[in-house]
């Protein structure tokens, strides 16, 4: 005999099946539209010159997704679903090769997947220099590099590479950094005698480790993913890494979110060879070279104040020239095509030794 509960569940499941069918049809309809976009671009721009990935367009779509969301799904979860849909559709237009500092299973790999979706082709490389070089040479469409961490500060090596390579910043994203203590399935906490991790991860989890594993040997490796790979083949050991490494090496979490500061976040930049149009909520990054003289920094910053443009980051690096010159890396709100920003850039170019526009790009959506 059918109960009322079974009848009610049966009706709801039929509705779900019907909705799933509609979603499936609409997904294929969207994919066909994406293929049409590719055909139009190839016809009018040429196959070699056609630009398929438009960061400003993607940012606008994701913002609208969150603005119109009525729940019960959270705004960012819905946006992540649409990110994957766009990733699959973009792969129909052109498979996207994305370079990042490897190996696979690192937080940078996780950032690349978050920004480009699972349909992008991952290209893990052994150094940041290689990431910049691959993108500049056109061997990779885009690159993902860390630029700053909320607890460790700026990634100075990344800043220095902008002086050597001529690339554009096409986007940014922020990734909350959650460290898990990973080990082979069936491992007990009391079994752990050795822990592997990158030196920064040990620093970010030092208090927790001192409290829970004061006697365990702490062995520094080149990346957390490398530590996870070692722990996957070694009994009595664990690794500090993220969920992506756990999935990759079939490890289980003995403890989750072991970082000392819960709001630990890393900001990443997207590198490319294209100018990015106005999205409506943008950021611009520049490098400025100026001599070390009284009032030098004031003269660089005063135009921003006068034109009402907000700075979001300023970092000083040693310059390459003589005369004790310094490089200033500056992020500020606005797009280089906006009149106010154009005025500031003109004044800075006239008053500084050198100005290098690194790019204007959408502010992080997710």
At a glance:
Helices cover 43% and strands 26% of the residues. It has 366 residues and is of the alpha/beta class.
Question: What does it look like?
Answer:
A hairpin with a 3-residue loop joins strand 3 (142-149) and strand 4. Helices cover 43% and strands 26% of the residues. It has twelve helices and 15 strands. Helix 1 crosses helix 3 (75-93) and helix 2 (55-68) runs antiparallel to helix 3 (75-93). With 366 residues, it is an alpha/beta fold. 34% of the residues are buried. It has helices spanning 4-45, 55-68, 75-93, 107-116, 128-137, 156-164, 199-204, 206-212, 224-232, 243-249, 296-306, 339-351, and strands spanning 97-101, 121-125, 142-149, 153-154, 168-176, 180-183, 194-197, 217-220, 237-241, 252-255, 265-272, 282-291, 311-318, 325-333, 354-362.
Q: Structural class of the secondary elements?
A: alpha/beta
Distance between the termini: 49 Å
Number of helical segments?
A: 12
3D shape:
globular
- What's the main sheet like? 6 strands, mixed
Summarize model confidence as the mean pLDDT: 92
Report the sheet-strand fraction.
25-35%
- The number of distinct β-strands equals 15
Order of helices and strands: HHHEHEHEEHEEEHHEHEHEEEHEEHE
Task: Flag low-confidence runs.
Answer: none
Whole-angstrom Rg: 24 Å
**Estimated helix fraction:** 40-55%
Oligomer: single chain
Strands, helices and their partners?
Layout: H1 4-45, H2 55-68, H3 75-93, E1 97-101, H4 107-116, E2 121-125, H5 128-137, E3 142-149, E4 153-154, H6 156-164, E5 168-176, E6 180-183, E7 194-197, H7 199-204, H8 206-212, E8 217-220, H9 224-232, E9 237-241, H10 243-249, E10 252-255, E11 265-272, E12 282-291, H11 296-306, E13 311-318, E14 325-333, H12 339-351, E15 354-362
Parallel strand pairs: 1-2, 1-3, 7-8, 7-9
Antiparallel strand pairs: 3-4, 3-11, 5-11, 6-9, 6-10, 12-14, 12-15, 13-14
Helix pairs in contact: 1-3, 2-3, 11-12
């Amino acid at each position: 005999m059918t109960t009322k509960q079974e009848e009610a569940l049966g009706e709801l499941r039929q509705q779900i099946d019907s909705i799933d069918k509609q979603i499936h049809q609409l997904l294929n309809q969207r994919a066909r539209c994406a293929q049409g976009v590719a055909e139009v671009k190839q016809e009018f721009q040429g196959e070699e010159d056609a630009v398929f990935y438009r960061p400003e367009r993607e940012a606008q779509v994701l913002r609208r997704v969150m603005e119109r969301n009525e729940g019960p799904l959270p705004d960012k979860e819905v946006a992540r679903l649409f990110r994957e849909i766009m990733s699959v559709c973009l792969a129909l237009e052109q498979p996207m090769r994305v370079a990042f500092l490897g190996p696979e299973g690192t937080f940078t790999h996780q950032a690349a997947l978050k920004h480009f979706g699972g349909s992008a082709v991952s290209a893990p490389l052994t150094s940041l220099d290689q990431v910049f070089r691959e993108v500049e040479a056109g061997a990779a469409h885009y690159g993902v590099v860390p630029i700053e961490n909320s607890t460790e500060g700026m990634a100075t090596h990344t800043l220095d590479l902008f002086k050597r390579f001529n690339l554009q910043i096409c986007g940014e994203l922020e990734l909350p950094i959650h460290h898990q203590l990973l080990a082979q399935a069936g491992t007990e906490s009391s079994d752990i005698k050795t822990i592997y991790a990158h030196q920064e991860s040990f620093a970010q989890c030092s208090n927790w480790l001192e409290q829970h594993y004061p006697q365990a040997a702490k062995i520094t490796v080149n990346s957390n993913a490398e530590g996870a790979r070692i722990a996957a083949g070694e009994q009595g050991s664990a690794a500090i890494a993220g969920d992506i490494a756990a999935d990759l090496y079939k490890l289980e979490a003995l403890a989750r979110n072991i970082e000392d500061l819960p709001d630990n976040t890393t900001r990443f930049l997207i590198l490319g060879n294209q100018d990015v149009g106005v999205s409506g909520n943008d950021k611009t990054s520049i490098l400025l070279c100026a001599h070390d003289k009284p009032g030098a920094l004031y003269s660089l910053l005063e135009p921003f104040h006068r034109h009402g443009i907000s700075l979001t980051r300023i970092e000083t690096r040693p310059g390459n020239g003589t005369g004790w010159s310094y490089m200033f890396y500056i992020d500020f709100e606005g797009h280089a095509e906006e009149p106010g920003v154009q005025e500031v850039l003109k004044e800075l170019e006239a008053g500084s030794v050198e100005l290098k526009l690194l790019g204007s790009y959408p502010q992080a959506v997710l």
